[in-house]
Amino acid sequence: MKFFPLEVEGAYVVEMEPAYDERGWFARAFCAKEFQARGMETQWVQANLSRSRARHTLRGLHFQRPPHEEAKLVRCVRGRLWDVVADVRPASPTFGRWAGIELDPSRLQWVYAPKGCAHGFLTLEEESEAFYLVSTAYAPEAEAGIRWDDPFLSLAWPAEPRVLSAKDRNWPRFQPR
Fold first, then answer.
1. From the CB of residue 27, how many other CB atoms can be counted at a distance below 10 Å?
2. pLDDT band for position 87 (50/70/90)?
3. pTM of the model
């Protein structure tokens, strides 16, 4: 596995390294020892799968407030996604910065979003699916979000979102502490 740090402290692109033979290929998708060596979460308590029918569907930006902060490990398993991690941790050296990367199944990549960061994605194709692991169970009382077009973060989405849930459309603007 290869780990590429992103512009957000503690966020990574994790690239699987396939070994090919006459049967096809095999790759490690997760290794607790390698994640732990980088200070990344190794305990995953929930696995989620989302499917978006329409191109330019936006999901996010989501996070959970303390003490229910969650790390996420996200992979595109169908279609294409523009995946975003935004640093909303006031004590972080990269507070207010964000990183975006295009994910598709052929790239064999994950995005790791550390605890305390907001996460979201925009579908770039119809029928796109994301599979992701989370380190903390969903806690409705800790659910939080930030508008996708927040001026403080100034995210550069590759296209204007066309499909959003009412909740995602109405998240508040980010209020830096």
1. 12
2. very high
3. 0.96
Q: What ranges make up the beta strands (E) of the chain?
A: 2-5, 12-15, 19-21, 24-26, 46-52, 58-64, 72-78, 81-87, 98-103, 109-113, 117-123, 128-134, 143-145
Domain presence at residue 175: no
pLDDT digits (tens, 9 = 90+) for 62-85: 999 999 999 999 999 999 999 999
Q: Reply yes or no: is the peptide bond before residue 164 cis, omega within 30 of 0.
A: no
So which residues are the catalytic ones? 62, 132
Task: Give the side-chain half-sphere CA count within 13 A for 8.
Answer: 27
Assess if residue 8 is contained within a domain: yes
Q: Is residue 147 part of a domain?
A: yes
Q: What is the mean pLDDT of residues 86-115?
A: 97
3-state helix/strand/coil string of 15-37:
ECCCEEECCEEECCCCCHHHHHH
In this prediction, residue 125 carries a pLDDT of 98
The answer to whether the beta carbons of residues 50 and 130 sit under 8 Å apart is yes
Domain coverage including residue 105: 2-169
**Per-residue pLDDT tens digits for 141-152:** 999 999 999 999
Token pair in block for residue 49? 């799968």
